[in-house]
Design brief:
The protein is mainly α and 124 residues long. The chain is 64% helix and 10% strand. The protein has a two-stranded antiparallel ribbon with strand order 1-2.
């Protein structure tokens, strides 16, 4: 799986949320939910075509309008990204990642206990 740029990932997040959609749908979403003016159609279209080339999207044509749909699900990309992060910054060790989060106060001991309980429940 290919790594996405920040811009590609932002568009992909929107498409994961919307499901099958057009470039116009993505532009409308950006305006409504991000509180910024619609980006140019050509800019979003270019990123969407790159995502398709990278194997993240497929399309169905309705005349001159294309409807795009994700073919890589969000969970798969999340797993890929997390493994890459752990490999690049924590020597491949999830223990080092969790230790870092606890030390940086991004995860307190109660949250860690809850997480361990959930993991125990999932393994039963």
């Amino acid at each position: 799986m290919n790594r996405l740029t920040k811009g590609e990932e932002e568009i992909m997040q929107i498409i994961w949320e919307l499901g099958p959609c057009t470039v116009s749908d993505v532009r409308d979403f950006i305006e409504l939910h991000k509180g910024v003016p619609k980006p140019p159609h050509s800019s979003v279209s270019t990123i969407v075509r790159i995502l398709e080339k990278k194997g993240f999207l497929d399309h169905k044509a309705y005349g001159r309008t294309y409807e795009y749909r994700p073919i890589v699900d969000k969970k798969s990309y999340t797993k890929f990204s997390l493994k890459k992060l752990v490999g690049d910054y924590f020597g491949g060790s999830m223990n080092q990642l969790v230790s870092f989060l606890v030390k940086e106060n991004d995860l307190d001991t109660d949250e860690l206990s809850d997480l361990l309980d959930q993991l125990d429940d999932d393994q039963k």
